[in-house]
Amino acid sequence: MKNHRNTIFYFVVTGGFTALIYWILKIGKSLEIGKNFIRPVTENGHWNDFIASLTLNLHHPLAILLAQIITIILVARFFGWVFRKIGQPSVIGEIIAGIVLGPSLLGLYFPEFSIVLFPVESLGNLQFLSQIGLILFMFVIGMELDLKVLRNRAKEAVVISHASIVIPFALGIGLAYFVYFKFAPVGVAFLPFALFMGISMSITAFPVLARIVQERGIHKTKLGAIVITCAAADDITAWCILAAVIAIVKAGTFVSSLYVIGLAFSYVIVMLFVVKPFLKKIGELYGTKDNLNKPVVAIFFLTLIISSYTTEIIGIHALFGAFMTGVIMPDITKFRNLFIEKVEDVSVILLLPLFFVYTGLRTEIGLINDPFLWKVTGFIILVAVVGKFFGSALAAKFVGQNWRDSLTIGALMNTRGLMELVVLNIGLDLKVLTPEVFTMMVIMALVTTSMTGPALNLINLIFKTKEVAILDEISNGNKYKILLSFGNNEKGKSLLRLANSLVKKQTETSTITAMHLTLSDEVHPYNLDQYEKDKFLPIIAESKVLKQEITTLFQATVDIESNIAEIANNGEYDLLLVGLGKSIFEGSLLGKVLGFTTRIINPDRLIDKFTGKEGLFENSPFDERTRQIISKTKIPLGVLIDKELQQVNQVIVPIFCSEDSFLIDYAQKLIYNNDSQIMILDVNGNVNTNFVLKSAVNSLEERYPENITMMNEKIIKKDFLANLDLMIISVESWKVLLDSHSIWLSRVPSVLILKHCFI
After folding, report:
1. Are β-strands 637-641 and 750-755 bridged in parallel, bridged antiparallel, or unpaired?
2. Distance between CA atoms of 159 and 230, rounded to whole angstroms?
């Protein structure tokens, strides 16, 4: 009854008021009399009106800005991915993306499209939005700095850091002496021009350097700690110098700038001794909570905006205020992590690429249009490398580092990246740098940043040493060593249970290493230790339940597949275990296979397909990542397709061909260590016809008669497969099963797909 009443009420209200709206609009037309409406009547008038309206919408400033953001993010992410794949920091690719979308490429070859997408009148909106992104990013950079670490290594770090600033700064001013007459803007004095050339030569990109250090796996070494500390000290010093330089440029004279510097000094004092204690009290009150409520977040963001506004008004740029706010944030790791997570995705993914493209729009490679200008560009790069690279290296050598570490520090400190672009854009905005000099310096920033990776590789080659990824691993040639690589925590626990089943009773003669690799772009350097702890916490807890000692290995990298294979190949491991996950049975990968599960296939046909001419990885049953690991790994490899594996008690081992004989070794390990029940399914009578297989199986039957069951059924019952814990199968036989659209695939338990070392 109640439902009928609601229905009647709904139709009465909506129908009645709809009729009222129609009546008001109809009688309202009478009010138009005498208003002299001009209604142009043309052929297809309504269509033309629609097109005109659509065109107007497309040229609306908001529509243009949104189109720019969509294009910028897509192109920046693509170039970042490409450069990450070739071993370069993704920031290089994003800078290149900006240049590609600017007048150097898009504007040169597709000028009409460039004018439509980036009209001159729209660049102001793009600039301001990119500046907001930079303010948020500099806030994060300030939070990255661990001042306690800086104090602990202050002596070495300050010497190296300040030498790496003073030497290139002096060389930059010397360079300005030679290029001022020809390249300085009209009306700009030598002092501001020389100071900007000096600061441009001496800056270091702390974020890029931190990512390279973690990608190289040296962030926990003494060398990595020194480099990070040097870069932090460099950042603080360079930004203070930049603030002073901006003050001098805006004030016009050095004496006038002293007033600005005095105000800036007062601002720093207030931030350190008034604002910082206030924020610290808030941090102590709310730092233990998992989430921050909106009023608390508002206080910190308001502090950030007021600080940036203050430094902009003083005349030392809003970015310095954002950086300073990050530095004085409460020294509580969890608290800073929460803010980094809130700010970083928006600033790095959405807003920061806008800055790269805005820089690209101002970079005109075509301005460097004769050999002389390219010679000057080359000389600028040479001065930058000599000053920063060798200046840092010599200082490191002086404080007691060996030549290898000293040159490594020099190569890393020579990384300029984003910070250089920030300085150059400020110089161009202040009209201290001409577009030609700006373009030359952008090229220098790209070259010095991209040379860092190759320079580190060359240093390692010259000194014939290699960074050891496995820092805590002890070499034991007689031990059976398993390396398991996991991404998802639950899959990692399944891999650990499987590894434990293989070595449970051989703790003295075996080791298990649990490894997690992550893309360096997906984890912030400041969060690195906490991220590692969170990732391994469930694995370590599971190892305690299993009473299995494990070694943990964590590394950030740009190429997960290659690094997994490299670590496995160089670590003298006997088995590498990786996981695919349950989704392999549910997604498109086996969609075609599961579509044929109503058919029962004779296993004899499987052998016919296997002995055909199809390649092993043609129409591969694995995703791209797993396929790369398989092709690059030179040791035995197991790929676990995990369907929530909890135990390894009931195991089936199908033998499709004589080459599957190596599977018997793993069956023996499971019987000895885990007392597993093994069902060997002889699909095509290979056990009886192959001497090696027959001997291996007979040996198992003699030693463990209670654990071995031989089977040769052509059709497997659904209920039987459902009661199993694991199927162990070779790569080739798994490929055969997939290609045959076998009924097995819809019923199998977790699967361990093994590649032997001779494959």
Report:
1. antiparallel
2. 9
Please name the residue ranges forming H helices in 104-252. 106-109, 111-117, 123-144, 147-152, 154-183, 190-202, 206-215, 222-251
**Does the pLDDT at position 93 exceed 50?**
yes
3-state class (DSSP) for residue 171: helix
The Cα–Cα gap between 317 and 334 comes to 29
Contact (CB, 8 A) for 193 and 184: yes
Q: CA–CA separation, 663 vs 678, rounded Å? A: 11
Q: Which of 571, 611, 619 is nearest to 469 (CA)?
A: 571
End-to-end CA distance of the chain: 73
pLDDT tens track for 536-562:
888 998 888 888 888 888 887 777 888
Q: CB neighbours (10 Å) of residue 108?
A: 13
Tokens 């020579």 belong to which residue? Answer: 414
Q: Can you read off the two tokens belonging to residue 616?
A: 């092993």
Average pLDDT for residues 319-332, to the nearest whole number? 85
CB atoms under 10 Å from CB of 333, counted, come to: 14
Q: What is the residue-wise DSSP string for 298-366?
A: HHHHHHHHHHHHHHHHHTS-HHHHHHHHHHTS-S-HHHHHHHHHHHHIIIIIIIHHHHHHHHHHH--GG
**Interval 130-146: pLDDT, tens:** 889 888 888 887 887 66
Q: Which pair of structure tokens corresponds to residue 25?
A: 């609009």
At 596-634, the pLDDT tens digits run: 333 333 333 333 333 333 333 334 455 667 777 877 888
Q: Which residues on neighbouring strands pair with residue 709, listed in sequence order?
A: 679
pTM score = 0.64
One-letter-per-residue 3-state SS of 620-643? CCCCHHHHHHHHHCCCCEEEEECC
Number of neighbouring beta carbons within 10 Å of residue 9: 10
Task: Look at residue 151 in the predicted model and tell me its pLDDT.
Answer: 59
Q: Are 329 and 142 in contact (CB under 8 A)?
A: yes
The per-residue pLDDT of the chain, averaged, comes to: 79
Q: What is the predicted pLDDT for the residue at 740? A: 65
In the prediction, which pLDDT does 246 show?
Answer: 84
pLDDT at 293: 77
CA 693 to chain centroid, in Å, comes to 47
Alpha-carbon 310 to chain mean position? 34
| Beta bridge partners of residue 515, listed in sequence order | 485, 553
Compute the distance between CA of residue 304 and CA of residue 281 in angstroms, rounded to an integer: 17
- Do 246 and 430 touch, CB atoms closer than 8 A? yes
pLDDT given for residue 343 in this prediction: 83
Q: In whole angstroms, what is the distance from residue 193 CA to residue 179 CA? A: 10
DSSP one-letter string for 451-471: THHHHHHHHHHHTT----S-S
What is the Cα–Cα distance from 142 to 36, expressed in whole angstroms? 63
Helices marked H in 184-221: 190-202, 206-215
643 touches 723 (CB < 8 A): no
Distance CA 416, CA 448 (A): 7
Token pair belonging to 459: 């240093």
Residue 378 — very low, low, confident or very high, per pLDDT cuts 50/70/90?
A: very high
Is the pLDDT reported for residue 194 higher than 70?
Answer: yes
- Rg, the chain, Cα only: 33
Residues 6+ apart with CB under 8 A from 124: none
pLDDT at 347: 81
- Give kind and range of the element (H or E) at residue 270: helix 254-270
Q: Where are the alpha helices (DSSP H) in 451-587?
A: 452-462, 489-503, 528-546, 560-570
Question: Six-digit token pair at 63?
Answer: 């529509």
Q: Reply yes or no on whether the pLDDT at 108 is more than 60.
A: yes
Q: Is residue 373 over pLDDT 80?
A: yes
Most confident of 47-51, 93-97, 336-340, 585-589: 93-97
